[in-house]
Amino acid sequence: QLQLQESGPGLVKPAETLSLTCTVSGDSINSNYYYWGWIRQPPGKGLEWIGSIFYSGTSYYNPSFKSRVTMSVDTSKIQFSLKLSSVTAADTAIYYCVRCFWSTYEALIMDVWGQGTTVTVSS
Amino acid sequence: QSVLTQPPSVSAAPGQKVTISCSGSSSNIGNNYVSWYQQLPGTAPKLLIYDNNKRPSGIPDRFSGSKSGTSATLGITGLQTGDEADYYCGTWDRSLSAVVFGGGTKLTVL
To answer: Which one, of A99, A123, A119, lies nearest residue A19 by Cα?
Structure first.
């Protein structure tokens, strides 16, 4: 059974770079079918898609983050990562790593979610 | 301000049926397929419906989805107290080139 586990600092200073890693267990990250992604949820608010990446490096980023976000996949460690630069208090949120797939009708579906990790941006 | 519009809250009694609406535009719901996610209190969201009306393995048929034009609807029958959660709709937006979500609807089972 696939499991995703986020890890990384819970506190990041303003203007610094937020770095998170998601460890995949129970399945291969080299799938020709699945993408791997990140979604965040600010306190008391809704969901926001950050982006998704294929194991080969092909990626889709939310234009709202595009200039600040970098995603990568490390197949040897069976992990994928998120880097978000120049953070502000508005980036405070629960960050979820997810497995995604493109359905037959070209919709990007998030079918497995990690438990989430809380990141606070504060000095 | 979310791209997709959902009612902030809905409520119904145990055993009853409830529907949750999700309204969008031609750049998202009107030309793409909708997913629904359930977020129980204090937990991560879970995929409930995808491609408008398909249920992943393990999701009971009490949950259903439909779409018409630029709106989608999640239906839940035989309501249980365990269904109390936040429900989110989501889809791809062609203009934004991004996955977009509704603001979420809190379901209360009275």
So the answer is: A119
